Amino acid sequence: MEGGEEMQGAVGLRCTWGVPPRAGTQAKWVRLNVGGTVFLTTRQTLCREQKSFLCRLCQGEDLQSDRDETGAYLIDRDPTYFGPILNFLRHGKLVLDKDMAEEGVLEEAEFYNIGPLIRIIKDRLEEKNYTVTQVPPKHVYRVLQCQEEELTQMVSTMSDGWRFEQLVNIGSSYNYGNEDQTEFLCVVSKELYNSPSGLSSEPSRKAKVRP
Fold first, then answer.
1. This protein's superkingdom (predicted)?
2. d(Cα 166, Cα 64) in Å, to the nearest integer?
3. CA separation (Å) from 39 to 35, 63, 88, 119?
4. CATH number for the domain running over 29-132
5. In the chain, what are the domain boundaries?
6. Helix, strand, or coil here: 9?
7. What is this structure's pTM?
8. In this structure, which topology does domain 138-192 adopt according to CATH?
9. Do 14 and 55 meet the contact criterion of CB atoms below 8 Å apart?
10. Nearest-CA neighbor of 30 among 4, 64, 2, 56?
11. pLDDT for 24-57, tens place per residue?
């Protein structure tokens, strides 16, 4: 390619050859020996992300990289995770085998400085972690015993997510002076969520219970 020619990348990033490549580096195809596995690709693909290590390497920017007997650039990284890196530069999508760890690809994306890919993987990991921690709530029930004169105050002062469910009249058990005091059983409930650590979250205050 001639100096100054521009290439439009699949992920919307423009790679500009502002400086003529060094002698011997003008071939369209590039061989990369990553951890003993050889990958064949083009300069256009490697330069989809201008600030990446791979783009700088194929442009000959002050990166002293040895070559093997075939002339391929030697890169001492895990070839298992390089495939998704290269494919992302080819078509702008992250495609992983079901058994491949996203954390491993993220580590390589950070090494090669592929900014858009780093953001995609981090977003996926955050979404996955959020989904794991969303445990369905448990319903907790309590039965509170109170007298008729205490009923209104007790229900109105319940807090921390407790709500009224059912009221059961159990008759008159006490006699104060000349008046019978009707006793009630008040059923209340609340949703109890599990924290990421697996421990149930407890309310800071309890529903009011008559001693």
1. Eukaryota
2. 77
3. 10, 19, 14, 25
4. 3.30.710.10
5. 29-132, 138-192
6. coil
7. 0.51
8. Alpha-Beta Plaits (3.30.70)
9. no
10. 56
11. 445 689 999 999 999 999 999 999 998 899 998 8
